[in-house]
Amino acid sequence: MLHHSTMLKALTTALLLVAITTTTWAQSAPSALSQETAFLRAFDGQFTGTGRLERANGSDHTLTCEFKGNSVGRQAVFDGRCTTAIILGISMRISIRYDAETRRYLGSFHESMGTIAVLAGSRQGETLSLSFTETAKSIRPNPPARLTITRRNHDIVLALRRTKPGRGQNLDLVLRQS
User: Fold this and answer.
1) Mean of the pLDDT values across residues 25-45?
2) How does DSSP assign 39-93, residue by residue?
3) For the residues of 11-48, what is the DSSP string, one character each?
4) Is residue 40 within 8 Å of residue 98, measured between CB atoms?
């Protein structure tokens, strides 16, 4: 009987230690949701920078851009305008939100020259990798592409890559928080 009582006390002590350790770890470890909202807060503020737009026909344009970002909880909106030396002006809006249930990002891309795309993907480290699928509402629908948004110190790097050679466009922007 003494042996049984000693084992019961040891088991109770072990379970108590596991419960304390688990509770302490859960309280100190940031939740996935708080990590994602912290990632989205990097989009808050004013950003300026330069970039390049390469069209499928081979034309290449140097861009000067200004963006304003705003995040609220699991969502962020990035509004901007880019111009070229030949006075071509393009406005863009990138809206993304984190879906905690699926652990994925969903969103949309709207551009003033008629491009409307649905975004979906995930984040690995400081890079958000999103499929870029134009909708039927796009004026000149292009094949699917990939949009990556990378956070580097005070910079945000946007890269849109066409997935079919000779079709679609490539866009590279490096924006610095101002």
Assistant:
1) 76
2) HHHTT-EEEEEEEEEEETTS-EEEEEEEEEEEEETTEEEEEEEEE-TT--EEEEE
3) HHHHHHHHHHHHHHHHHHSPPHHHHHHHHHHTT-EEEE
4) yes
pLDDT tens per residue across span 125-172: 999 999 999 998 988 777 889 999 999 888 999 999 887 766 777 889
User: β-pairing, 145-152 with 127-134?
Assistant: antiparallel
Of 50, 45, 41, nearest to 174 by C-alpha is 50
DSSP letter at 109 equals E
Look up the pTM and report it: 0.78
Element (H, E) at 4: helix 2-28
* CATH number of 35-177, picked from 1.10.10.60, 3.30.300.20, 2.40.128.20, 3.40.367.20: 2.40.128.20
